[in-house]
Amino acid sequence: MSVARDTRSAASSLSRTAAGHALYAILAVAAVIGAATVRTDGYIANILMQAATYAIAVFGLSVVLGLCGQINLAQAAFFALGAYAVALGTVDYDIPFFVCLIAGMAIAFTSGGLLGLSTLRLGGHYLAMVTISFQQILTVVLINAIQLTHGPDGVGSIKRPDLFASSQAYLALAVAVLAVAGYLVWWLADTRLGRAMRAVRDNEIAASAAGIDVYRTKVLAFAICAMLGGLGGGLFAGGFTYVSPDQFAFSDSIVLLTMALLGGIASPVGSAIGTGLLILIPEWLRFLKSVPGLYLAIYGLAVILIVVFMSDGIWGFIANIFRRSTVVAPSPKRPLVLRPADSRAPAALQVQGLAKHFGGLKAVDGVDLTVRRGGVHALIGPNGSGKTTMLNVISGLYRPTAGRIFVDGVDVTALSAHRRTIAGLGRTFQNIRLFRSMTALENVVIGAEREGNTEAASDHAALEERAQSALDFVGLGERSGDLVRSFSYGHQRLIEIARALAGNPTVLLLDEPAAGLNSSEKKHLHDLLDRIAAQGLTILIIDHDMTLVAGVAQHLTVLNFGRRIADGDTVEVLRHPDVAAAYLGAE
Predict the structure, then answer these.
(1) In the prediction, which pLDDT does 291 show?
(2) What is the pLDDT of residue 352?
(3) Which residues pair with 377 in a beta bridge?
(4) Which residue of 88, 135, 363, 419 pairs with 74 in a disulfide if CB–CB is 3.0 to 4.6 A?
């Protein structure tokens, strides 16, 4: 019976997906046919051409800002690279149009990747400043490198492909490329790379702990954004058959960004809506241009009202209405199987002489720690003893000052945080770190995608099944389709544990999992930890709740002022006089 329900549920999901794709294909084909057959005057055709080519560039901002959360104030520069590649290639060197278009995309992709490699470690306002500088430098080059770019006069008589020589045929080409690019950006959001980008946007530290290479993901997002900018620019050059530096100024980058924010940065549909509106609104208000200032005032007011009252953009506002009205049926429960790796090393986790100094402060000072396989090991100590710092060093968020770390017998000391996750470490955080724009299921799917997780196949259906099993295991399977921000504090902690479990780690690191929980939630956590340990997973837990620690841990290590003061069987360590003195104080 369960198998039959699963089959019907999968068939229903596939049917809805296929129906969505079919509807998009029908609308896209209709738009292309309309562009190719409906006669318009040159003025309308130019407006449609500008909207189509700009929208492709704005799709790039949907990737880098909407999916990955990285600012790009140089999209007009990448737009210019594609435009000038087509213009100079077809006019000066007589290279076929499509070869020039592909070359422009490649140049923009490479430029975006190199710019990202050199700046994306900065982030924030530093990244904004660098992209502005890149935009300004390119503008100066376009104006002054006269022998190469034709200078301020620009490039005219740009050639189109013979098949699309007429304005109407070329408009149909631009609309077709727009439809394909929009579909690919829409599809990207639900791929592994797209989910990684969304995770980086929501919480970089949690993304790294889930096994995502944050830096690589940012660079790819930036390069894809630049490539789409180059594609739009190349088509723009062919559409208007003339380009000049003043068409690609910094103000144009701001216009492209405003288009994305106005329609809804998280979706290509929103990007297309925002582009259309910002191009059409000035045309709708042309009759007011006879009154000085009134046209710009109404135009600016319209943009401000949309941004203030629709913070997620027009399409985001509409999508949220549909999301609230959609009820997701819970899937049948499946058992979660944990099969942690076992290389027959003597310990699942071993730390030798670990130290972490912050200037003159020795937060962790030469600590040795051996966590036996298959048990629950607790790391305790008073506030400021170095417990969380030690966990951060073990998981790779901090680089150790000294010492070595072994996971399942493998030295991971030199590995980055996401590489240590791939090596078998899973963790939760003292301050909950979830991807707050995603559902509970989407959060846990990202954990299940950990490279090297033998319990989850590469296809998305298997990943979702693994994630659903992890949510069922912690008792939240029936709410898998809810956004994580709608869950209580205690349930968010359980989702974080489920995300770590879905990756089938060798060692699970839990940082204050009972913090902020009430008595019933602590009882549920106690039972959950017992069930995890029963499947042979090794747990290293930090917590101040001695009742929980004494109930679940077989082995105890105590820190004070960054040093280990006791280690051994839980009952014996809790009776140790040095431990009592550390917690209660002694004369």
Answers:
(1) 64
(2) 96
(3) 540, 555
(4) 135
Query: What's the per-residue H, E or C state across 285-331?
Result: CHHHCCCCCHHHHHHHHHHHHHHHHCCCHHHHHHHHHHHHHCCCCCC
pLDDT < 70: residue spans in the chain: 1-17, 123-124, 285-296, 298-299, 302-303, 306-307, 309-311, 321-332, 454-458, 584-587
> Rounded distance, CA 313 to CA 295, Å?
23
CA distance 323 to 57: 28
Domains located in the chain, CATH noted: 18-249 (no CATH), 349-584 (3.40.50.300)
Q: At what angle do helices 519-534 and 460-474 cross, to 10 degrees?
A: 130
Count CB-CB contacts under 10 A for residue 300: 10
For CA atoms 536, 538, 542, 546, give the dihedral sign.
Answer: positive
Q: Residues in the chain, how many?
A: 587
* Integer Cα distance of 564 and 465 in angstroms: 42
| Contact call for residues 89 and 99 (beta carbons, < 8 A) | yes
> What is the pLDDT, as a whole number, of residue 98?
97
Residue found under tokens 């707050």:
436
Strand partners, 362: 357
How far is Cα 231 from Cα 81, in angstroms, rounded to an integer? Answer: 9
pLDDT tens per residue across span 277-287: 888 877 776 66
Structure tokens at 217: 């993901």
Distances (CA, A) of 156 to 46, 96, 262: 16, 16, 33
Sequence-distant (≥ 6) Cβ neighbours of residue 545 within 8 angstroms: 514, 522
What lies within 8 Å, CB to CB, of 356 at 6+ separation is 362, 363, 364, 386, 389, 390, 393, 398, 400, 401
| Residue 570: closest CA among 538, 544, 546 | 546
CA separation, residue 579 to residues 123, 146, 382, 454, 557 (Å): 43, 77, 10, 41, 10
